[in-house]
Design brief:
Mean pLDDT: 96
Low-confidence stretches: none
Helix content: 40-55%
Distance between the termini: 48 Å
CATH class of the largest domain: Alpha Beta
CATH topology of the largest domain: Aspartate Aminotransferase, domain 2
Number of domains: 2
Strand content: 5-15%
Number of strands: 14
Length: about 400
């Protein structure tokens, strides 16, 4: 069968590939430590599960509106005002099957062939693939450990051309855990004020998982707010990954465009998940905050533990639940059986030697690093670090 050429513009995310390879090892009886996937290891809070049960009993098992139930869109408006001091109307909200679909809707609605999208590296793997699928051009701006993995106004302005249509970033960032302060976002907003044709996609899916204080959104700056596409969802902050629910807040004309696109792809998101999400947003957030406390305890273990390994450089993440160490000092070294020349080699070396699954930083646009999720039990992390140290110490 001859398949469409657009498939050549995208590839399977390496996060999913590494998880698949790990499952294959597990099937052979190998005890694998999986630190690859960005998924909270907590159960969805009981009051959200109970809300889903009620929704089914009350008959919410039919197709919902394409943009989401009005009550959920209003709940999102309430949340944005309460948590972020951002004013939106329900008409500026659309609910989709996960934040990934929100991003796909937005990028496919904005980018024309040849348009440029500026993406600071490291970045979540899907951003670039979606731009490529839309036949846009990715313009990557390296922001390494020396920059605390954040783009500066000077670097941003230097990357802008007449073809620039889009800027995509996340805060807190996957994979680095970097969090932009209000002052840093204000400085970036000052650059965007000069370029009124650029749309800003702000991925805020890790909003609640913040270790340094209040979350700040670039949508707070009125001069550019009408060009900000705020992306969020329920998977990370509410441990609802399998519920597949995300949302966008943005300009009405873009929301209408995404509604049109979504009507042909999936129609509305899951009706039961949507009803439960109303409760998630408006009810007690204590379970989410308790989860973040656990992530912080794990962070306070794994970051110093990795830093103590000779040859590892690491930045302390301010949000999300990832360690993103620079392991480039090991490139060119061998344990006698395998040679590590790059981040991809390192990921496979650690998988096959230590049976620890991480994700190559090359997948995120930074070939110096490797990503480990600490959304795992403390016992799992302790054993994982022990194995990592042993495998890295064997490289000479």
């Amino acid at each position: 069968m001859q398949l469409a050429k657009r498939l050549d513009r995208i590839s399977e995310p390496q996060t999913i590939l590494m998880a698949k390879l790990g499952r294959e090892l597990k099937a052979k009886g190998v005890q694998v430590i999986d630190l690859s996937l960005g998924e909270p290891d907590f159960k969805t809070p009981q009051h959200i599960i109970d809300a889903a049960d009620r929704a089914m009993e009350e008959g919410y098992t039919k197709y919902p509106p394409i943009a989401g139930f009005p009550e959920l869109r209003q709940a999102i408006v309430t949340k944005l005002q309460r948590d972020n001091h951002l004013e939106y109307t329900p008409e500026q909200i659309i609910v989709s099957t996960g934040a990934k679909q929100v991003l796909a809707n937005a990028i496919l609605s904005i980018v024309n062939p040849g348009d440029e999208a500026i993406i600071p590296t490291p970045f979540w793997v899907t951003y670039a693939s979606l731009v490529s699928l839309a036949e846009g051009k990715n313009v990557f701006v390296p922001c390494g450990i020396e920059d605390h993995f954040k783009i500066t106004p000077a670097k941003l302005e230097a990357a802008i051309t007449k073809r620039t249509r889009l800027f995509i970033f996340s805060s807190p960032c996957n994979p680095s855990g970097a969090v932009y302060s209000k002052e840093e976002l204000k400085a970036l907003a000052g650059v965007f004020e000069k370029y009124p044709d650029i749309v800003i996609i702000s991925d805020e899916i890790y909003e609640y998982i913040n270790y340094v204080g209040k979350h700040e959104s670039i949508a707070q700056f009125e001069a550019i707010k009408d060009r900000v596409v705020l992306v969020n969802g329920f998977s990370k902050g509410f441990a609802m990954t399998g519920w597949r629910l995300g949302y966008m807040a943005g300009p009405v004309e873009l929301v209408k465009a995404c509604d049109k696109l979504q009507s042909q792809f999936t129609s509305g998101a899951n009706s039961i998940a949507e009803r439960a999400a109303i409760t998630a947003l408006l009810a007690d957030l204590t379970p989410s905050f308790d989860m973040v406390k656990a992530f912080k305890e794990r962070k306070e273990f794994i970051i110093p533990a990795l830093q103590a390994i000779d040859g590892v450089r690491i930045s302390d993440p301010e949000g999300a639940f990832y360690a993103f160490p620079d392991i480039s000092s090991f490139y060119g070294k061998s344990n006698g059986a395998a040679v590590v020349n790059n981040a991809d080699d390192m990921a496979m070396y650690l998988l096959n030697t230590a049976h620890v699954i991480g994700v190559s930083g090359a997948a995120f646009g930074d070939e110096h690093c490797i990503r480990f999720s600490f959304a795992a039990s403390m016992e799992t992390l302790q054993e994982g670090v022990r194995r990592l140290k042993e495998a890295l110490d064997a490289l000479h």
